[in-house]
Amino acid sequence: MSDRPDTPAEAAGRDARSRRSESRRVAGWAEHHRWSASASLGRLLGRPFGTLMTVAVIGLALALPLAFYLLLGNVQRMGDAMGQRQAVSVFLKPGQGDAAAQLLAKSIGERADVAAVTVRTPQQGMDELAAMQGFSGALHALDDNPLPYVLQVMPKDALDAGAVQDLVTALRDERSVDMVQDSGSWRQRLDALLGLGNRIVAVLALLLSLAAVLVVGNTVRVDIAGRVEEIGVLMLVGASRSFVRRPYLYAGIWYGLLGGLVASLVAVAIELSLVAPVERLNAAYAGKLSIGALPLWLLLATPVASAVLGWVGARLVSAWQLRRLG
Amino acid sequence: MIRFDQVSKRYESGHEAISQLSFEVGDGEMAFVTGHSGAGKSTLLKLLALIERPSHGQIHLDGQNLGKVGRGGIPKLRRRIGMVFQDHRLLMDRTVFDNVELPLVIGGLAPAERGKRVRAALEKVGLLAYERQLPDTLSTGEQQRVGIARAIVARPALLIADEPTGNLDPQLAVEIMGLFAEFQQVGTTVLVASHDLPLIKRMKKRVVVLDHGRLVADVAAQEVL
Ligand SMILES: Nc1ncnc2c1ncn2[C@@H]1O[C@H](COP(=O)(O)OP(=O)(O)O)[C@@H](O)[C@H]1O
Ligand SMILES: [Mg+2]
Fold first, then answer.
1. Does the Cβ of B86 fall within 6 Å of ligand 1?
2. What is the pTM of this model?
3. Is the CB of B43 under 6 A from ligand 1?
4. Which of A168, A294, B176, B221 has a Cα at 20 to 30 A from A125?
5. Which residues is B181 bridged to in the sheet?
């Protein structure tokens, strides 16, 4: 505490000291985290019932959007499996002959989005109608066959509703085409519903994530309220605000992580319970249906994201509450 | 080590607990602060630990002007001071060991080093055998000794104690004061607030006497009768 300038030896010594103190500081920081993490985990395990409740609430809340997502994915798969085999009927203009029909069928068949094209002659159409009850008498009254050539266009399996719609539009634009009937419109409605479902899942995930943040926040709030005295003692013996706060942040992370794990496990359990009924459906649909599992990355990301949510909840609440404690 | 310059403390209630107080305590010195109840003893110690801020005047601790220590600097300052409270302020749900360890955890020491120092501190206050117990299972005097172990475990240069013997019977009180004297002997500066005059006289240390926040007597150790 004197004012005289440092000698070079003193300055060098101070540099070495400051390097030492820097590494000590980092070690101390790491030690703080190690201690806070294990201390908070110890507290959570110290009252297993309360911890279990919090974790279960978070787990079930987050399992809900996962379950919806699973359901949606599988409905989509079923739609894919059943819906793509719907042929598009292309009615040619009256007066288009066999040669024109064959030519158009060939050119449509060469399209990348088309799997197969079959030509149905007016005669075939007439025969089919004749086979139907009640029509034969009326048909005999006709001199000419009024039916047009019809092309049955089978879109490729992988096409979604939008691409099928594009195909329909392209076919409609053909000069010799009178009208196109897309029997796959139920498929379009399904896709629209699935889009709505996806939106609902997103909203649900957002709301329930918010709920998880609040659940952790409230648990931490109660925890801090019960430890006001301890926090006072910590402050008196020189704890910084961030030191006081850190165990609560770790508690938030543990709650979130454990809750997220529960959510993933619940989702897997739901998935497994769906296997048998889907197998039965699969048999009914000649092996075209199989259950679509939740992707592994989602099952792993859920606990991580949930840990982040827990941390956010703990952070918001602890900041607010410790500020109130002064 | 400690220097008060014309320090006054007026609480928000308007009551002036400390009035224009000036005194110094040297490095390694031990002094008692005494006076009637409400004289300002506790306030004086609180000003040192920045639990309260002075309304006027300056306090220097080890050459550092406490007026220049901001909010963020308070924890660091407190780590340099060992504090003992009348009601010992132990964490009742932690073992004796964990309580004493707290300042070292805050200081970021590694576990092995912490264990060594905690045991050394507990040994000094004669409680090594109790390290795994909860404070509840200890007598009041033993709890106070745990509080003292916690105050000295980080080897602070300054030890302050507010009525550390207030809840103890005379026999235990003498033992506790003896402990403080021992810490002074190994170089710690010690400042003890107490209204127990007979006990203070027995200790033969410097005595600073407050009356309504003013310094009315400063008796050197040799002059204590
Ligand atoms: N936080 C406070 N707010 C208002 N007045 C206080 C506060 N703390 C202490 N006082 C008053 O300041 C005076 C000195 O108190 P204190 O320092 O505790 O005295 P001592 O420890 O010597 O008994 C007393 O009159 C007390 O009522
Ligand atoms: Mg007092």
1. no
2. 0.76
3. yes
4. A168
5. none
- Which value does ipTM take for this structure? 0.91
Chain A closest CA to B79's CA: distance in Å? 5
In chain A, residues with a C-beta closer than 8 Å to the C-beta of B160 are: none
Q: Is the pLDDT of residue A1 over 50?
A: no
List own/partner pairs for A135-144 with CB under 8 A and 24 or more apart.
none
Q: Which of chain A's residues have a Cβ under 8 Å away from the Cβ of B49?
A: 236
* Ligand 1 center to B10 CA (angstroms): 10
Q: Which two tokens stand for residue A182?
A: 């897309």
Instruction: Determine the Cα–Cα distance for residues A28 and B89; give it in Å rounded to an integer.
Output: 25
CB atoms within 10 A of CB A38: 12
Collapsing DSSP states into helix, strand and coil, what is residue A91?
A: strand
Instruction: Decide the pairing of beta strands B2-10 and B16-25.
Output: antiparallel
B149 touches B125 (CB < 8 A): yes
Does B156 contact chain A (CB < 8 Å)?
no
DSSP B2-37: EEEEEEEEE-TTS-EEEEEEEEEE-TT-EEEEE-ST
When pLDDT is averaged across residues A108-121 and rounded to a whole number, the result is 88
- Of residues A52 and A97, the one with the higher pLDDT is A52
State the pLDDT at residue A172. Answer: 87
Q: Looking at beta carbons, which residues of chain B come within 8 Å of A232? A: 89
Q: How far apart are CA A235 and CA A251, in angstroms?
A: 20
pLDDT of residue A279: 79
